[in-house]
Design goal:
Elements lengths: L4 E5 L5 H8 L4 E5 L2 H9 L1 H13 L5 E4 L18 E4 L9 H6 L3 E4 L5 H16 L2 H9 L17 E5 L3 H12 L3 E5 L7 E3 L2 E6 L2 H4 L5 E4 L13 H4 L6 E5 L8 H10 L2 E6 L12 H4 L3 E3 L8 H19 L19 H17 L9 E7 L7 H13 L12 H7 L3 E7 L12 E7 L15 E8 L5 E6 L2 E5 L4 E8 L4 H11 L4 E10 L6 E9 L5 H7 L5 E8 L4
Parallel strand pairs: 1-2, 1-3, 3-4, 4-5, 6-7, 6-10, 7-9, 10-11, 11-12, 12-13, 14-15
Antiparallel strand pairs: 8-9, 14-16, 16-17, 17-18, 18-19, 20-22, 20-23, 21-22
Length: 568
């Protein structure tokens, strides 16, 4: 007899999702939509206690949530039979991924289910903005009939710039092509022009290069360190006069103060917004009241179809995993590493730390990732290590967590070529290394021809695990070193001249941040004139952003990048 699975609906899940579970011969549903009201009345601690008690008692195999409650470490302290948590939606900020992974619980989301809904909203906003539907409606609603004020623009023949060519961006591009628009795109991780709906979409890897060529900008990127405020006073100045802006992605991608200035000056002809830096915006905010802004209250996934789809997909994801049929929408590593030896697991952990450490230094896009594994028995772990490297390199560019299940497809969609080679050699003895991992990242300019890439288009990092099991980095971009990457860190590249070390120490001391360890290496400059140094700082606590922003302005300091790594 097949095992019986019980899924806990710990949120207000659409009836269609609950009914799907009831129709399965091997599944039951425990509907606890009342937990949302419990949170409102008594707080998250009460929810933690109630759900924790249910899980600890056993018999609950899967859990589904939306955004109404949080899944916390306290809730998962004694998870009983729980094997999978599915988020009926995209964001998993309300789920403690680290706690779930530590308990061996798979976390999945249903990102695909809301793609069409979100793309349709962005396209609707663009059409309504260009045809001035909002102000025309307000006039009619107030009893007016002033047609001459509402002369708009037609989409056919206009140039649309799609910022971000992931699932939603491509869906918007396909719809724009059907309307006869000249579609162009920006995505730093798409290395070739795209073929969509029978049309070539000119693709730029530099946002500024796209701006002079489009009449409308539609944003479909996550909010990251690189995308926050990407449309600002400086980039607005590079746009065509009278550009239109649509943002249904994340608040803060468009600098809101710069947007108001551009609207007032006429540099921007109009904006349509579904998202805001602070939600909801203040009652008197010009984002609500400006006559050139069409604003709606974050409706991206708010359709009956999307809410139904995410609920059904969440139920399907839970049951597929519990039945052993596969993993859908995974956002954590789950049990991928259970068949690896201790040494192989150590190299997977090393790969994650190395890629995370080098990622802030990769600023010109990625075309090639070449991974070399040298060691007695690392070949079995090569696939996991390869995907772990990609995750570490790419995850800061995505708001949806990447994992070993989906990262290869994400890289392939962006034209990133990945190669992994292994060499079987005898490992060291005593305190020596028992293998070596090398990762070389090449930028787009050196990816497709036989020319030698320029130095600033190549990033290289080398690591080893010694017999003590600790991960070590022994080289970064030609700088030799021997350090264990762990905890909060800051990478500093600087001119090698007197006073820099003291300057850095004084800056961190003045900010009350203790430097637990400092590793310094230097190399000759390519022109043979002097040296450049690389400084890696291990800290007892995260460095304040104000400290980092100030430090990079100091004479001789070339780059400052914070990195957050697990402890050892």
């Amino acid at each position: 007899m097949s095992p019986k699975f019980t899924l806990l609906a710990a949120d207000k899940i659409a009836d269609e999702g609950l009914e799907y579970i009831r129709q399965q011969p091997d599944a039951d549903v425990l509907n606890r939509a009342d937990l949302v009201d419990l949170k409102k009345d008594k707080g998250q601690d009460a929810v933690d206690a109630e759900v924790g008690k249910l899980l600890a008692a056993g018999g609950v195999h899967g859990m589904m949530v939306r955004s109404g409650i949080k899944v916390t470490a306290a809730m998962l302290e004694s998870p009983g039979d729980l094997k999978v948590i599915a988020r009926a939606g995209v964001g998993v900020d309300n789920i403690d991924l680290a706690a779930a992974t530590a308990k061996g619980i798979l976390v999945a989301n249903t990102a695909e289910a809301s793609t069409i809904t979100t793309a349709e909203l962005a396209f609707t906003l663009m059409m309504a903005l260009l045809r001035k539907v909002g102000p025309a409606y307000r006039t009619m609603h107030a009893g007016g009939w002033d047609r001459n004020k509402f002369k708009g623009r037609q989409l056919h023949g206009m140039a649309l710039g799609v910022v971000g060519l992931g699932r939603i961006g491509r869906a918007v591009a396909e719809r724009a092509i059907a309307f006869g628009m000249d579609v162009r795109g920006y995505d730093p991780f798409v290395n070739t022009d795209l073929q969509l709906a029978g049309t070539t979409v000119k693709t730029y890897r530099d946002f500024a290069d796209l701006l002079p060529h489009v009449d409308v900008l539609s944003f479909h990127v996550p909010k990251t360190e690189q995308t926050a405020g990407m449309l600002n006073a400086e980039t607005f100045a590079k746009c065509r006069k009278g550009v239109y802006v649509v943002n249904a992605a994340r608040g803060g991608i468009v600098d809101e103060a710069a947007l108001i200035d551009a609207l007032d000056s006429g540099q921007c002809a109009g904006a349509a917004l579904d998202v805001y830096a602070a939600e909801p915006p203040e009652d008197e905010s010009p984002l609500r009241t400006h006559e050139k802004i069409l604003c709606v209250p974050h409706l991206g996934a708010s359709t009956e179809e999307a809410q139904t789809a995410v609920s059904v997909d969440a139920a399907k994801a839970c049951l597929a995993y519990l039945r052993g049929e596969g993993i859908s929408g995974a956002v954590n590593a789950g049990g991928v590493r259970v068949d690896l030896t201790e040494k192989q697991q150590n190299y997977v952990a090393l790969a994650d730390r190395m890629a995370t450490l080098i990622s802030p230094m990769v600023t010109r896009g990625i075309a090639n990732v070449a991974i070399t594994l040298t060691g007695g028995d690392l070949a079995h772990a090569a696939g996991t290590i390869e995907r772990t490297v990609l995750i570490g390199l790419l995850r800061r560019h995505f708001d949806t967590p990447l994992n070993v299940i989906n990262v290869a497809d994400v890289a392939a969609q962006r034209g990133i070529k990945v190669s992994t080679t292994t060499a079987e050699v005898e490992g060291g003895v005593g305190a020596g290394p028992t293998g070596e991992l090398t990762v070389v990242i090449t930028g787009p300019a050196g990816a497709t021809d036989a020319t030698t890439p320029k130095a600033d288009q190549v990033r290289r990092i080398v690591g080893r695990v010694y017999d003590d099991g600790l991960p070590r980095v022994v080289e970064i971009n030609g700088y030799p070193m021997d350090m264990v990457p762990a905890g909060p860190m800051v990478v500093i590249r600087n001119e090698d001249k007197p006073g820099i070390i003291g300057l850095v120490g004084t800056a961190f001391g003045g900010a009350g941040v203790n430097i637990a360890d400092m590793t310094i290496a230097r190399r000759p400059n390519p022109d043979g004139q002097g040296f450049t140094a690389l400084m890696l700082l291990k800290l007892d606590a995260d460095a304040p952003q104000a400290l980092l922003d100030d430090l990079v302005t100091k004479p001789g300091v070339l780059k400052v990048a914070p990195v957050k790594l697990p402890g050892c």
